[in-house]
Amino acid sequence: MLKDKVAVVTGSTSGIGLALAKTYAEQGCHVVINGLGDAADIEEERASIENAFGVKALYSPADMSKGDEIAGMIALAEKEFGSVDILVNNAGIQFVSPVEEFPIDKWNQILAINLSAAFHAIRAAVPGMKARKWGRIINTASAHALVASPFKSAYVSAKHGVAGLTKTVALETAPHGITVNAICPGYVWTPLVEKQIPDTIAARGLTREQVIKDVLLSAQPTKEFVTVEEIAALALYLSGDMAKSITGAIISIDGGWTAA
């Protein structure tokens, strides 16, 4: 179904993004991975994708806070592979703080990486998708694209923005064989979630166990973390022809968090 398509996945050197990249590669897609980490570890992951799935895999070190580098990443994929057929805007960072103490540089950084990066990548990829009359854009949003939590003013604002960007671009590209959707996970056990635990401990005066039970999983009726495999399976479905009529959708995968 997706054999020889080209998938660009941002923030894909670990966690959700890496699971997404591997899922697309397993289906025969050539992939571009992107993100932070140790250079040797990243190269090992890149090479393992090629060896395991028999596809080509590139690594782009593009800084997701810089629009010109993001555009360069899309241009690199088009030059090396001839197209960008699937774009997954997954890169994201988090910071937890009361609003009156929220560092301005952190606000700017979170908005840049969690929201503006998706805009820059979409802007660069859409012309090629329109020319080929086929494309899939998937934005990794969050349950926080739909509801808020305390001490996350920048993250919640950015993810609400991702939902709006998704709907707008879906309307613009619908006549061109392009779908644009947002996946909204609840809490997934990833490095991003693990790293915010100390800040939440400090902000709320709780223990690590209390943060996991009473903060992270309190809103999810299943009382279980969403898995990266579940998210990858949903993204794969949205990328297929059977989902061609699904566009502009904000899809929750959150253990029931936003059902209330």
How would you describe this structure to a colleague?
By secondary structure, this protein is an alpha/beta fold. The chain has one domain (6-188, 226-252): Rossmann fold (3-Layer(aba) Sandwich), CATH 3.40.50.720. The protein contains eight helices and seven strands. It has helices at 15-26, 39-53, 67-81, 104-132, 153-173, 191-204, 208-216, 228-239; strands at 6-9, 30-34, 57-60, 86-89, 135-140, 178-185, 250-253. A seven-stranded parallel β-sheet has the order 3-2-1-4-5-6-7, sandwiched between helices. β5, α5 and β6 form a beta-alpha-beta unit. The longest helix has 29 residues, at 104-132. The N and C termini lie far apart (36 Å). The model has no long low-confidence stretch (mean pLDDT 96).
Keywords:
single chain, 260 residues, alpha/beta, Rossmann fold, seven-stranded parallel sheet, 8 helices, 7 strands, 49% helix, 13% strand, globular
What percent of the residues sit in helical stretches (DSSP H or I)?
40-55%
Number of helices: 8
User: Can you tell me the CATH architecture?
Assistant: 3-Layer(aba) Sandwich
What Rg is obtained from the alpha carbons, in whole angstroms? 18 Å
> How many strands appear in the DSSP assignment?
7
Percent of sequence in beta strands: 5-15%
**Average of per-residue pLDDT values:** 96
Regions with little confidence, pLDDT below 50 for 5+ residues: none
> CATH H level: which superfamily?
NAD(P)-binding Rossmann-like Domain
Shape: globular
Order of helices and strands: EHEHEHEHEHEHHHE
- Distance from first to last alpha carbon: 36 Å
CATH fold type: Rossmann fold
* Main structural class: alpha/beta
